[in-house]
Amino acid sequence: MTGTPAVEVRSVRMVYGSGPSATFALDDVGLTVEPGRFVALIGPSGCGKSTLLRLVAGLEQPERGDIRVHGVTPAEACAAKLIGLVPQSPALLPWMSVLRNVTLPQKVNRRAAARRARIAGLTGRQPPAAGPDMRELLRRAGLGDVARKLPGQLSGGMRQRVAIVRAFGLRPDVLVMDEPFSALDEFTRESLQDQLLDLWEESETTVLFVTHSVTEAVRLADTVVVMASGPGRIVEGIEVDLPRPRRGQLLGERRFHAYEDLIRDRLRRAWHHDAA
Amino acid sequence: MTATEGRAVPATGEEPPARRRRPGRRPSVPAWLRPAVWLPLVVMLAGLAALWQYGARRLPYLLPPLRDVGRSLLDNPGYYVHNALVTLGEAVAGLAMGFAAAFVLAVLTSEFPLVRRAVMPVATVLNVTPLVAVAPALVVAFGFGPLPKLVITGLICFFPILINTATGLRSVPREVLQVYRTVDASRVELLWHLRVPSALPFVFAALRIVFPLSVIGAVVAEMSASGSASGLGTAISVASSMNQLPVVYASILVLALMGVLLLSAVTVAERRALHWHDSTRD
Ligand SMILES: Nc1ncnc2c1ncn2[C@@H]1O[C@H](COP(=O)(O)OP(=O)(O)OP(=O)(O)O)[C@@H](O)[C@H]1O
Ligand SMILES: [Mg+2]
């Protein structure tokens, strides 16, 4: 893999507030993600995972340091629609049908396509072909029958799937997800993880995925980034060298648990370090 | 008589769940035919009527017998219909003007903090100024034609719509805004696709306050313009100066009915426009 990384974060510091009450949400954070990788961020509550995602998505400006998405600033990346965001809540518009909800982001900011082609040209990638068939995408996510329903008529898991389809409909180069499954029960969560992986594997998208679940991180990610707080920072990046698809048998095997134990150990250390 | 109720949050679960009647479940009687629904109101009205009649017998100079009020209505329906239409026209036209001005200003204040800082203090002062006191001055300024009536009605309706709409435009959840900011939606796109639809429940809450107010505004304006020729407010002024009590109360009754009608119209429109909103769900 040569060329521009999909995401590059260099010695970023993020401070909320000022004076003695200032919170160092992030300090000296560096992270490089190659295109097409699935990266999970895990760490104790308040360590700055969401903040890091917001910075990458251009929703906030760092106090210090530099962030690039495919070689351009997050603001330029947003203007070219390189980024798809899946927040913790589905964030759907209650007055629009599911189908219109997932197509609206494609309809706004029409000039993005040209910008996107130019940025892709700079880094020698192919810009995605014309907009995907959203009905087909909804069907693939098991939402074919509810395309005309309103979000209020769906279950929580269905709404979360709609939010994921909405992000994938943009064919984003970088998909940014903040604990998208944390409000779901275990079975729904597993089936959504499978669907997410299916979509990811054929889309060549880079994924940044925040989670609180060690098992979810090991199951999904190529790299698990462990963070600690006070100030928020990255402790370690752990490569998960397990074959895909990671389902069934593999989840019970020793090598799977070994990764879980390793991550738990790093989290515990980070936590003790905080407490000390 | 000014809009002191200014700000209102969309009501939830206030109306009976008339929408989406389930067929097959209870096939026999519609809900409103059941005595438990209509009987309390009928008893209440009968009690009030009896009280009224008793009062009319004791104080014949203050209260006309209901029979006289009814006869006045039936003998002269054209008179009441004509005056009601005049007042209704003033109320609705004034409300439309106030609505247009308030909506545009709400959009401007929510988009530009500078405008907000300039407009809000003035609007607040306007809101606490009793319009009944201002009305005569406005009549002097704008003459006896329809214009002062529209201005007064518009002013009465202005503030509740401004405050509610401005609040509604800012009610888009943060995460929704974040999703659309990562695709760099323009301000106009955010306004049109997210902010205005999110404001609708608030706008309807304002309309519920403002429709009855608009009738009040029109009547106050008619009463302040001593030379005005028609309208229920004028009818009341004229009739009370000539001591025609039945006409006064018949006009008041028609005004009340008009208010109820307008309010029901808002409710129906709200049910249609906000079928997706929790406040219209069963
Ligand atoms: N808008 C804000 N204003 C002030 N402080 C903030 C703001 N957002 C985050 N913080 C602070 O920054 C730190 C990191 O917050 P962040 O939300 O990124 O944590 P997190 O790792 O996502 O936590 P969680 O796992 O609970 O979601 C916290 O100490 C928080 O109090
Ligand atoms: Mg978070």
TrEMBL record, chain A:
It comes from Actinacidiphila guanduensis. InterPro entries: AAA+_ATPase, ABC_transporter-like_ATP-bd, ABC_transporter-like_CS, ABC_transporter_ATP-bind, P-loop_NTPase. SMART domains: AAA. The keyword Lipoprotein does not apply. The keyword Chloroplast does not apply. Pfam families: ABC_tran. Residues 7-254 form the ABC transporter domain. CDD domains: ABC_NrtD_SsuB_transporters. GO terms for molecular function: ATP binding; ATP hydrolysis activity. Keywords: ATP-binding, Nucleotide-binding, Transport. PANTHER family: ABC TRANSPORTER ATP-BINDING PROTEIN, TAURINE IMPORT ATP-BINDING PROTEIN-RELATED. This is NitT/TauT family transport system ATP-binding protein. It comes from the Bacteria. Transmembrane segments: none annotated.
Automatic annotation (TrEMBL), chain B:
It is a multi-pass membrane protein. It holds the Pfam family BPD_transp_1. Residues 80-266 form the ABC transmembrane type-1 domain. Residues 1-27 are annotated as: Disordered. It comes from the Bacteria. Its main location: membrane. Keywords: Cell membrane, Membrane, Transmembrane, Transmembrane helix, Transport. PROSITE patterns: ABC_TM1. The keyword Protein biosynthesis does not apply. GO terms for cellular component: plasma membrane. It is found in: Cell membrane. The keyword Transmembrane helix applies. GO terms for biological process: transmembrane transport. The chain crosses the membrane at residues 31-54, 84-108, 120-144, 150-169, 190-211, 247-269. Belongs to the binding-protein-dependent transport system permease family. This is NitT/TauT family transport system permease protein. It comes from Actinacidiphila guanduensis.
